[in-house]
Amino acid sequence: MATPTAQTASQVIVDALLAINVIRDAETPTAEMQAQAIRRLNQMMATWEADGRGLGYIPIGTVTDTLTVPDGALMGIYSSLAIFLAPSFGASVSPELVAI
Fold it and tell me: Model-level pTM?
């Protein structure tokens, strides 16, 4: 099994919002954006768990919480979160993001 990499919820959320151009590099998401992203991340990961794709995810409460998953899962998590969040932010999803 791959060694997990510690990422904060904030890092995953920022990556997701950057992927759909909701924020720019070095920009911090608003507290409301972060709260919505945390809710969606927890929902998405619970769905994955129910579908049998468990990664040992522990629900996140704040942006400073650590999300520890296998390295190979990080890109899929932030990409899927971006796609999941896009409609809420009126953002479009690029074909490149879908391909990830």
Answer: 0.89
